[in-house]
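tool_call: predict_structure(chain=1)
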Amino acid sequence: MLQHALFFALGLITLVIGADALVRGASRLAVSFGISPLVVGLTVVAFGTSAPEMAVSVGSAINGNVDIAIGNVVGSNIANILLILGACALIAPLLVAEQIIRQEIPIMIGASALLLVMALDGDIGRLEAAILFGLVIAYTVFLIQQSRKASKATADEFANEIPTSDWDRHWSVQTLLVVVGLGMLVLGADWLVQSAVAIARIYGVSDLVIGLTVVAVGTSMPELVTSIVAAFRGQRDIAVGNVVGSNMFNICAVLGVTGLISPIGLPVSEAARHFDLWVMLAVAFACLPIMITGREIARWEGGVFLGYYAAYTAWLILASQQHASLATFSTAMISYVLPLTLITLVVSMVRHNGKSASNQ
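tool_result:
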């Protein structure tokens, strides 16, 4: 048990360091070849923080642990919004750019809904995986074209996201960082998945649950670090954009590539189809009313997000153990917590609309 825990920790550390090296090398290399910092920020940096999810999901699928591959993506998307945005909002209220509300969040919701529809028959086939991967390519091309029309202020803000230093100015060092980063991602993913599976089986926890919780949070560490740093720097729309872009990449690119590579396709468990995928979609929708009420995620709303993530994790643990208190816990969430949250959001929206009307 101690050995498995040690390799899990080493795998997690290796993933985070590898992702950082990959993002630094790739972003600096792209700028060296004349690609604008804005495009790099919208694509390389945002997608690069999802590299651990890609490494873990592909490695899991190849080794036959498909539930971890699915659970990793679904759990990471839930953690990205509830855990990461919640934690960042507690540091400072997160200002949300109009483009994220108007464009990026609807795209993320659409991708989440598409994944749910594809999974309802119990399997994500190669054709569906190819469609997902094609969508992320189209999305990237669209972002690049859109970046040419971006304002100077937006370009400057994303330019600040690109690492700057003297020691990695030469393209050879940048290329080495990319190679080393990729190697560490592969190695770290292997250690993380193998140890997670071993620990899960010792405690009788399913691969899906371990993928939805421990592995998902572990592979979301780059997004957490990137978003918290952006929040501290005052680049709060980047903190939100990083999460939304990462969720889009997780669904389309990670599951798209995994489905194309996996020798058995991507079968989706009944538990994921009937509960976890719906939670992921509901969490994506939860972003809209909070952001529309004031174009920011306030501290109290960040606290609500964190509370829901704690409740979701508790439900997964209780359900995996078939604990006697599961029914009581579920009843309390459905009968009291969710209605109170809905009422709070409605009141908040009414107050916001009242303030907007009085200011006009």
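agent: The longest strand covers residues 94-95. Proceeding to next step.
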